[in-house]
Amino acid sequence: MMTKVLFFLMAPLAIWGHDLMPVPAKIALGQGRLRIDGNFRVELTGYREARLEEAAARLTENMSRSTGIPMRPGASPAALLVHCERASAAVQAAREDESYRLVVTPQQARLDAANPLGVLRGMETFLQMVDLDAGGFGVTAAEIADQPRFQWRGLMLDVARHWMPLDAVKRTLDGMAAVKLNVFHWHLSDNQGFRVESQRFPKLAGMGSDGHYFTQEQVREVIAYARGRGIRVIPEFDMPGHATAWFVGYPELASGPGPYTIEREWGVFDPAMDPTREETYKFLDTFIGEMAALFPDAYFHIGGDEVNGKQWDANPRIQEFKRAHGWTNKEKSNEELQAYFTRRVQTLVRKHGKKMIGWDEVLTPDLPRDVLVQSWRGQKSLAAAARQGVDGILSHGYYLDLMYSAADHYAADPLGDGASDLNEEQRQRILGGEAAIWSEYVTPELLDARVWPRMAAIAERLWSRQDVTDVADMYRRLDVVSRELEWLGLTHVSQYEKMLERLADGGPVAPVRTLAEVVEGVKEYAREEVLKYTSFTPLNRLVDTARPESQVARQFAVLVEARDVAKMREWLTRWRDNDARLAPVEASSELLADDAEISRELSAVAAAGLQALDYIQAGQHAPAEWTERQTALLEQAKKPKGVLLLSVEPPVRKLVELAK
Amino acid sequence: MMTKVLFFLMAPLAIWGHDLMPVPAKIALGQGRLRIDGNFRVELTGYREARLEEAAARLTENMSRSTGIPMRPGASPAALLVHCERASAAVQAAREDESYRLVVTPQQARLDAANPLGVLRGMETFLQMVDLDAGGFGVTAAEIADQPRFQWRGLMLDVARHWMPLDAVKRTLDGMAAVKLNVFHWHLSDNQGFRVESQRFPKLAGMGSDGHYFTQEQVREVIAYARGRGIRVIPEFDMPGHATAWFVGYPELASGPGPYTIEREWGVFDPAMDPTREETYKFLDTFIGEMAALFPDAYFHIGGDEVNGKQWDANPRIQEFKRAHGWTNKEKSNEELQAYFTRRVQTLVRKHGKKMIGWDEVLTPDLPRDVLVQSWRGQKSLAAAARQGVDGILSHGYYLDLMYSAADHYAADPLGDGASDLNEEQRQRILGGEAAIWSEYVTPELLDARVWPRMAAIAERLWSRQDVTDVADMYRRLDVVSRELEWLGLTHVSQYEKMLERLADGGPVAPVRTLAEVVEGVKEYAREEVLKYTSFTPLNRLVDTARPESQVARQFAVLVEARDVAKMREWLTRWRDNDARLAPVEASSELLADDAEISRELSAVAAAGLQALDYIQAGQHAPAEWTERQTALLEQAKKPKGVLLLSVEPPVRKLVELAK
Which residues share a beta bridge with B358? Predict the structure, then answer.
């Protein structure tokens, strides 16, 4: 709830006293509240277009849904007066004005923006400001002047490894709009699937997708949906590697002999396009032409990552081609060959009116500079590009599938680390960042829980001032935005509940929840080392249900810091006793079969924590021998149990140390 | 989970040992399980049609969603072999064969049915049989021979008082199919809204709906969606009363001078169609003709309920008409006038090829017998109709909006009470029943929680044998089906969680939940006596959030019966302490402002219960003076607090009595 004291704040102080996420550039809270009731109405003035009318209707509907207040038809005075100066670009561009000014008084709110993009951003802010107090729903008076720090704030969604249907994509766009993201990067092809209809090459999706692909009509629907929310849509067709799914229908594109089938496993595979055949470029010319017409955005992503070169090495004709070009260094010749391919593809992309994007690997010394590099390698790689005069965006640090905490992502800054010593002109080349959700371990039912709410922390990093870095306040607001996202239709909370129910299968859910709340999946790529996963492996176990980041562990760590013994004892007791409660549920649910060890460990660790509390409360030093035993126990608990980590180990260790 | 003992059971014993709802007519559980994994596949043999293909795909998809198992493409052996004999009627009719036979062995399941309706019912049974045990997901071997007891098993949905959008209708149909209901009765017009497009009379929806109506294309979509699930769609256009929304666009239809506006309040209103003008019938002839073509079902509902006659009494021309017809008895003349109207309308309905349905009031001695009476009055009224040779269905006892318990609804039998002494021929005239959800206090967000899971208990009453009456087992299975319905997309659980969050507005949800779990809204029509509600009154308070029937109160009553002192103490302590925990949340949420009294009362009642336990455990008799004071407290607690009831009062009273 917003406090009602009048003061003018600049970030980072601005982050106190309101629940907005991302934090606006400038905010001053005022006195009194604008009441929200059934007479709420938006009035549009100035430049008008259908997108604005729809946004106003959507704002009203979203507000009605989250408050439960039905809005009356009819002509009450407008509660929110919107003024838009002029149209934005016909096709949303990277460098557009997204600023807005929002002034809320107890009588009325007024939103001013140069163009519809600013209006859309300001409306999201207004919606976030609606809250409840003892007087009812309302918006605390405030003056906000806001614009983004970075012009490129995106999310890459991999719909290739696991198919994500249309409604999942739309939900994702709803969430993106809510936190002011503006680029939807659609990873549409990979070894495991080719996910968009090509009319010129129908066997791409026809044979490469198990029937799970977007029709061109659906693509247009998504683009319109995104544009309505101020979001650009950039397609990615990964080449020359990550392309097995293309070869199922068109094996002649590959560098090795076919036939090919859709890959069902994860990892880097050998098949790669043949960069030496002119037919490859003829195919790509036609294909890129078709897709460039379908996707209006100025940018076009060609992937370009992770070619292992094995097919190239095994093909005598390709070997000969390399020799003929003088690429004879065994270490580098495949890089040189890929650079050749990238230049050729860039020419095609340019021919069809687009600017090329590729992952780090595409950046080679002789590539023309009209390219944008998306860096999975980090700020240093990005800085190197910027120094070469190449635009870049950061994705390193923003891979949501690696199961890092929101705080970890929040700490990654496109202009931080290896990019912090750039000069102003070079800094301008770093356009922003994109989170990425690779879908090896993500199904449609898991998508929201893997993206949200952590995505909102990244969105704030990309929108808000660089000095907005208070992690505790970020988490406080993340809880709020997480609830708001559920009202928009995201399912990261509700689906979690259903998955817990599934694990318990009619048995008591409480002990399953208690365990799920304090475990996390292993981080980075550790999961694939434990078990052989394929695209048909069910993702319905505890590791899938558990949140990427344990909220309870975080909260417990706060209790330890605060020495809140009573609450610690409550938690520790529940954890100690949980294994006995869980046992009968485990016995009748195969989905819980792998979790016995970590459940026992939770009990043991909690018992150690309780003993530590006993020593602390008694004012005694724990005997060295006891400490030694507990430390050994905690060392053991620190290790992954299969694919699971016990996330309360660090704060309990802290307790054991305090008891020394 | 199904037990694995081989025994052959007939209902009611059949209700033990499985989770099916409705209970099938015959079930014998076998030994072993059919494993459900990613190779699950349905194969159709015999008669084929698109509806069956879609049903097979839907079954696979629903199973995949609820288990979290992705299904592999490709030709594994079919796990479920379906054989369908022949087509069902082109337009689903009331008297069609819905029987099926389902045999599950550890190797394969086989479903046989005479027509697609039986296949659809059998597939729902198979889906309900999927569960999880220590070996994974599977279906316990069984032989089932099943058919419904009643041919007419419906739900009436009022989309007039509160608008219910298309997705809410579709969700409802999904739920209906899951529990084998087969009639969707769509209450499309009332004083508060005319909800379907008429091309002949565009002002009906154009002026009578605030823009919230179904286009004819959407109607066709709903009909196709329902047919795909074996559900008939019957429209209701209520006349001559309950018709104010018609008069907004066409005031000449009314018996009193206009102009008219959409009603915003609840109750019975004066406006009624003018039964004396031939223009009225000309209008209705055209309108019914248009709607009869749009809705293929053989039945057409004309409402006919609750005409208060005031406009008729106030209109001299209508008075004169009655005199001319010799209807001069002041008490009965309006009934006679309505009977005249009903006969005229019935002629029109028949002319357009339909059979008329009306509420009790339409049944008058000289009405031709080709009518079906829907009884809100009860079995006696239905029996009277049956004795006159008129078909009937029961809705009395099945009004879901009256906030009765599932057990109450479960006890109502179309052939019970006043209909129990009919002869066989008369019994055949009672076709079944329809639940009804009138929407005065139901918004789209509340719809699922007001219909489900209680609807499933009524569905069982209408499908299963009359002697399936074990209430405790019904509740056990209702919990299971409730979870299954959420997997289908119903939101009665997830929306409840969101509404609790809304009430707490970022504060702790736990004390709000504790209170919400033990209160119920007042029953029947008591709510309107407490507060003046309109269609714009937000339904977002505790009374709306609370379930119609407190599960916790029911469970606590079981603990009292079982004398489970430890668990009772746990609950009572939580309730006693809840008021203090809730107070700070109440102080900052206007939505909780009315709940202070009942929260305090919960604490007081729980304290009484704890003291009673103390006496019981100490083996002492409570002093008479103490008993007297607690009884007075409980008398007070029994009374509604505004619109809320404290549902744990009866079991705590039991404890106080035990302590005597």
Answer: B373
Of A311, A333, A332, the C-alpha closest to A322 is: A333
Residue A187 CB partners (closer than 8 Å, separation 6+): A156, A157, A158, A159, A160, A236, A238, A438
A650: tokens are 């660090």
B488 lies within 8 A of chain A by CB: no
Structure tokens at B128: 């309900």
In B322-450, at which residue ranges do the beta strands (DSSP E only) sit?
355-359, 371-375, 391-394, 430-437
Judge whether B400 and B375 are in contact, CB under 8 Å: no
Structural tokens at position B136: 């994974």
Strand pairing class (B232-239; B299-303): parallel
Active-site residue (options: B306, B335, B445, B657): B306
Contact residues, A window 98-157, toward B, CB-based 8 Å cutoff: 131-137
Find out whether A163 and A171 touch, Cβ atoms under 8 Å.
Answer: no
Tell me the residues of chain B between 38 and 57 that have a Cβ less than 8 Å away from chain A.
38
What's the rounded mean pLDDT across residues A652-656?
Answer: 97
Residue of chain B whose alpha carbon sits nearest to that of A491: B494
Quote the CA–CA distance of A280 and A288 in Å, as a whole number.
Answer: 12
Planar angle of CA A493, A498, A500, nearest 5 degrees:
95
Please tell me the distance from the alpha carbon of residue B280 to that of residue A2, in angstroms, as a whole number. Answer: 58
Measure the CA–CA gap between B553 and B574, rounded to whole angstroms. 14
Q: Both tokens of residue A171?
A: 């939900």
User: DSSP code of A152?
Assistant: E
Q: How far is CA B331 from the centre of its chain?
A: 35
Asked if A587 has any chain B CB less than 8 Å from its own CB, the reply is yes
Give the distance from residue B654's alpha carbon to the nearest chain A alpha carbon, in angstroms. 27
- pLDDT confidence band for B480 (50 / 70 / 90): very high
Contacts of B537 in chain A (CB under 8 A): 70
- Picking from B135, B537, B591, the nearest residue to A590 by CB comes out as B135
The reported pTM is 0.95
Q: Angle at which helices B494-504 and B444-451 pack, to 10 degrees?
A: 120
Per-residue pLDDT tens over the stretch A101-138? 999 999 999 999 999 999 999 999 999 999 999 999 99
Residue with tokens 């079906």: B372
Nearest CA in chain B to A37: B538
Q: What is the CA radius of gyration of chain A?
A: 27
Residue A516 has pLDDT above 80, yes or no: yes
Q: What residues of A act catalytically?
A: 306
Q: Quick one: CA dihedral B189, B297, B359, B342, positive or negative? A: positive
- For residue B511 the two structure tokens come to 């004390």
The predicted structure's pLDDT at residue A75: 73
Total beta-carbon pairs less than 8 A apart between chain A and chain B: 120
Q: Do B68 and A505 touch (CB under 8 A)?
A: no
**C-beta separation of B253 from B283 below 8 A:** yes
- pLDDT of A196: 98
Identify the band that residue A629 occupies on the pLDDT scale cut at 50, 70 and 90: very high
Cis peptide before A22 (omega within 30 of 0): yes
**Site from A4, A163, A505 to mutate, B interface, most B CB atoms within 10 angstroms:** A505
Dihedral of alpha carbons A136, A138, A142, A148, sign = positive
Q: In sequence order, which residues have a C-beta less than 8 Å from that of residue B654 and are 6 or more positions away?
A: B557, B560
Task: Find the helix packing angle between A216-228 and A278-294, rounded to 10°.
Answer: 50
User: Which residues, listed in sequence order, are joined to residue A303 by a DSSP beta bridge?
Assistant: A239
In a 13 Å sphere around the CA of B33, the CA atoms on its Cβ side amount to 19
Q: Nearest C-alpha of chain A: how many angstroms from B210? A: 7
Test B443 with A1 for CB contact under 8 angstroms. Answer: no
Are A310 and A270 contacting, i.e. CB atoms less than 8 angstroms apart? yes
Q: Measure the CA–CA gap between B345 and B357, rounded to whole angstroms.
A: 11
Residue at token pair 């504060």: B507
Q: How far does the CA of residue A72 sit from the closest CA of chain B (Å)?
A: 7
